[in-house]
C-alpha cells in the first residue's frame, strides 16, 4: 500500500513537472525514474500478492500432518510461492535494465570498462620482461648423455 501510494504520488508529480518550465533533459530523466518506480511497484505487487494470498489461506485452513498427501501438496505450493516471493528481491536489476537506457549505459560502463579491465589485469597479465636464460646444467647433462651413446 505504501509503495503504491508513493508511486502514484511520483507519477502525479511528474505530470506537474511537464507543465513547469524545466530543461528537457531533466524532464526526460524524471519520466524515466517515474517509469522505473511504477514498474517496480507493479512487479512488487504481482510477486507479493500470491504469497500474501497463500499465507492468509494457510492461516485460515491449516493442513495437518496426519494427511501426508495434502500436507505434501501444501508444502510444495508454499515452496513455489515463497520462491516467487524471493525473486522479488533480485528482479530490480532486470527491471531497471529493461526500462532505463541510462541505467543500461551505467551498467555497461561499470561491468565492461571497469570490471573487465581489472579482471584482465589480475588474470591475464603478461610478463614482458626479458630475462637471461641461466639454464647451463641441462645442456651439460645433454652433452654427457650424447657422449655416452
Automatic annotation (TrEMBL):
It comes from the Eukaryota. Keywords: G-protein coupled receptor, Membrane, Receptor, Transducer, Transmembrane, Transmembrane helix. It is a multi-pass membrane protein. Signal peptide: none annotated. PROSITE patterns: G_PROTEIN_RECEP_F1_2. Residues 1-96 form the G-protein coupled receptors family 1 profile domain. The keyword Secreted does not apply. One of its GO terms (cellular component) is plasma membrane. GO terms for molecular function: G protein-coupled receptor activity. InterPro entries: GPCR_Rhodpsn_7TM. Its main location: membrane. The chain crosses the membrane at residues 37-57, 77-99. It is found in: Membrane. This is G-protein coupled receptors family 1 profile domain-containing protein.
Amino acid at each position: 500500500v505504501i509503495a503504491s501510494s508513493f508511486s502514484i504520488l511520483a507519477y502525479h508529480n511528474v505530470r506537474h513537472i511537464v507543465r513547469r518550465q524545466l530543461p528537457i533533459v531533466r524532464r526526460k530523466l524524471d519520466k524515466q525514474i517515474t517509469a522505473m518506480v511504477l514498474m517496480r511497484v507493479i512487479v512488487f505487487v504481482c510477486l507479493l500478492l500470491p504469497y500474501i494470498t497463500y499465507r492468509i489461506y494457510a492461516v485460515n485452513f491449516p493442513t495437518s500432518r496426519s494427511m501426508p498427501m495434502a500436507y505434501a501438496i501444501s508444502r510444495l505450493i508454499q515452496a513455489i510461492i515463497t520462491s516467487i516471493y524471493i525473486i522479488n528481491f533480485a528482479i530490480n536489476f532486470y527491471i531497471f535494465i529493461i526500462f532505463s537506457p541510462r541505467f543500461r549505459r551505467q551498467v555497461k560502463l561499470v561491468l565492461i570498462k571497469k570490471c573487465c579491465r581489472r579482471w584482465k589485469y589480475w588474470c591475464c597479465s603478461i610478463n614482458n620482461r626479458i630475462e637471461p636464460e641461466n639454464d647451463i646444467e641441462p645442456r651439460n647433462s645433454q652433452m654427457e648423455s650424447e657422449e655416452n651413446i
